[in-house]
Amino acid sequence: MTRDDLTRRQFIAAASAGSLAAVTTSDLPAYGNVTRKASKLALLGGDPVRKNKSWPQWPHWDEEVIDSLMKTAKSRIWCRIQSATGTVPTFEKEYAKLMGARFCVLTGSGTQALHTCVEALGIGPGDEVITSPYTDPGTTASILSARALPVLADLDPESYQLDPDDVERRINKNTKAIMPVHMMGQPADMDRIMALAKKHNLKVIEDACQAHLAEHRGRKLGTIGDLGCFSFQSSKTIACGEGGGIIGNDEALMDQCYTVHNHGTSRRGRTEVIGPKYRMNEFEGAVLLGQLSGVKERFARRNENAAYLTYRLKDIPALTPQKLYDGTDSGSFYLYAMSYHEEQFDGIDRATFLKALSAEGVGLSPYIKQGLHREPWIDNILDSKVYKKMYSRKRLREYKDQLACPNCDKVCSEMAMLWASGPLLAGREDMVEVADAIEKVYENRDALRKA
Asked: Which residues share a beta bridge with 203?
């Protein structure tokens, strides 16, 4: 596969149209194997489309990563406060530059990055932050750790992102911030979210933990709101095991983030505020620095492969790829996500479809089983002495009564995603096989239903 298979210009044109399916045939030849697709399903005794093949391994490592780790080990500079030129402060500068931000502060995880931002903005007991129910628990944990209230708004069921209309319905006098989650690494509806924030005088903390390098209207995600947070956990498209980062352009606010994450101690060496110890260690910084040289190339390849898959799947009504909003220039494609429509698959349920596809050598996953609005942490906080002291009985009762997120439930029941950090780095023939396998199962749905 070459970069000519899909130029960045072609991808941007497709994404700006709201869906990668806008890529034309001339841009992306299908290369599908009609005979292979029409053959007997592997689940029913036929030959699989993809046999005895593996995906590119993830997380990425090479000699640059090993050399960086060895250099750090030998230096005995293992903690960021030992040197202003260690791996952590160096990667902070490099990552800020890469993302088009003025400043970066690295933490021990994406959850820590989000919590640091909540604290730095002065959000705490009695305050509310509106966010998504369709996300890692770390999103709400960052708000709960500040003893604020995470208010869960429903989704746009086609994009899997926060629905701005439902966000606005949930804003009240105690709302202090919106925390959009750029799910799957693609931009949320930032035009409308920023408009809402301006209208209601709210802060915006971007949970861009899955969205390294993704762009919206020429700006990297994480630089659009007041603060942006990222995760470098092992599965992410830039990884170091655990780890997180905050980026921003407001020097005073970013300085406050540093103080909070450094157990409340400022760069001036004075212990000034309440704060946890969230510093990233130098070995994680070394891993990040060691893989930096190939980050842009891997990002481009994921976008190219995602565009190819979307083009190939455009005529299969049973699967609809994630909707991209107007203004989307590129996505990180941490996950390549689709909605499965059982009614378009002759009533074959999702579990059966996934089993048949797995037999063809392609594994898709439902991803998140249920939204956070259905998890027991809610009863825990509503029954806790702390939250009963901080919030009125009326507000806590309203909170429980307003938890319904039917679109999130729909997304959870329909999701079929390809984990993309490693697989979307594969060659074009691998993407052909993924599309062929899906088409084969779809074309043989009658045989699958009768089996």
From this structure: 177
So what's the pLDDT on residue 31?
Answer: 52
Tokens of 433: 């096989």
Tokens 């209208």 map to which residue? 199
H or E element that contains 135 = none
pTM for this entry? 0.92
Q: What are phi and psi of 424, to 5 degrees?
A: -75, 5
In angstroms, the first-to-last Cα distance of the chain is 38
Sequence-separated (6 or more) residues with CB below 8 Å from residue 167: 130, 153, 178, 193, 196
Where helices occur in 292-376 by DSSP H, the ranges are: 295-312, 350-359
Q: What pLDDT sits at residue 28?
A: 52
17-36 confidence digits (pLDDT tens): 333 434 433 455 555 565 56
Residue with tokens 């956990």: 233
Q: Any bridge partners for residue 335, and if so which?
A: 419
Flag whether pLDDT at 235 surpasses 90: yes
Query: How many contiguous H segments (helices) and E segments (strands) does the chain have?
Result: 18, 15
CA distance 164 to 372: 18
More confident of the two residues 195 and 1: 195
DSSP string across 182-226: -GGGS---HHHHHHHHHHHT-EEEEE-TT-TT-EETTEETTSSSS
Give the long-range contacts of residues 71-78, CB within 8 A, separation 24 or more: 71/286, 72/282, 72/283, 72/285, 72/286, 73/283, 77/282, 78/281, 78/282, 78/283
Q: What is the DSSP letter of 233?
A: B
Q: Are strands 319-321 and 335-340 parallel, antiparallel or unpaired?
A: antiparallel
Q: How far apart are CA 367 and CA 369, in angstroms?
A: 6
Does residue 11 carry a pLDDT above 90? no
pLDDT digits (tens, 9 = 90+) for 302-350: 999 999 999 999 999 999 999 999 999 999 999 999 999 999 999 999 9
**pLDDT tens per residue, range 39-78:** 899 999 999 999 989 999 999 899 999 999 999 999 999 9
Residue with tokens 């999130």: 408
Structural domains of the chain, with CATH: 3-58+294-368+411-450 (3.90.1150.10), 63-293 (3.40.640.10)
